[in-house]
Amino acid sequence: MSRGHMLRRERWVLILLAVALPLAGCGKPRAVYLAGPPSTLAGEPLVDDPDASCAQAVGAWFARADTNKDGVLDLAEARTDAQRFFKAVDADGSAYITPDELTDYRAKVYPAQYRGALSTPPPPSKPAPKTPGGSELPDPEHRRFQMTPATADPVMAADQNLDFRVTEDEFIAKMAERGGRLDADHDGKVSRDEVLASCQSR
């Protein structure tokens, strides 16, 4: 191989390394931002152990929520678990959750690695659009509320009448809807395996 070919090959290797190394370093934050942490049927983030896999985090939550230890979650158990989370977020006891309350809750419970990833969205995948005058438009990948995943928010998605707040009835209805989608055998309950199936799409 000629010296010229060797120099060109070495240059390409250096270019590839320069691109690959930063991407390898930001892979986990990007994944965290896009999907958010694992969550319960009610949308509670499971962040006690940031290093736990989705299956580990969801499995530990299921064991806590299954209060009668029969291996399934019925509606009463799921409702009790959802109401506990609702009260934790509804800081002022107004009987509804606002985006500000949700952001404050996440700022309090999220470990540093989640806060950093979700409050600093990854770089846009394409140049920012510009107005006719040349000014850059706001990056559409940046979220209005800090620490909100890029996917549909699991809590605010329950806001059925779009009044920017979630009542307990709306909250419980969305939780039941999620449980119904996971109830593969349609027995009105969700098993541990049915709940863990939600991790396969992450």
Automatic annotation (TrEMBL):
<feature type="compositionally biased region" description="Basic and acidic residues">
    <location>
        <begin position="178"/>
        <end position="195"/>
    </location>
</feature>
<dbReference type="InterPro" id="IPR002048">
    <property type="entry name" value="EF_hand_dom"/>
</dbReference>
<dbReference type="GO" id="GO:0005509">
    <property type="term" value="F:calcium ion binding"/>
</dbReference>
<protein>
    <recommendedName>
        <fullName>EF-hand domain-containing protein</fullName>
    </recommendedName>
</protein>
<feature type="region of interest" description="Disordered">
    <location>
        <begin position="115"/>
        <end position="159"/>
    </location>
</feature>
<feature type="domain" description="EF-hand">
    <location>
        <begin position="77"/>
        <end position="112"/>
    </location>
</feature>
<feature type="region of interest" description="Disordered">
    <location>
        <begin position="178"/>
        <end position="202"/>
    </location>
</feature>
<dbReference type="InterPro" id="IPR011992">
    <property type="entry name" value="EF-hand-dom_pair"/>
</dbReference>
<feature type="compositionally biased region" description="Pro residues">
    <location>
        <begin position="120"/>
        <end position="130"/>
    </location>
</feature>
<dbReference type="Pfam" id="PF13202">
    <property type="entry name" value="EF-hand_5"/>
</dbReference>
<dbReference type="InterPro" id="IPR018247">
    <property type="entry name" value="EF_Hand_1_Ca_BS"/>
</dbReference>
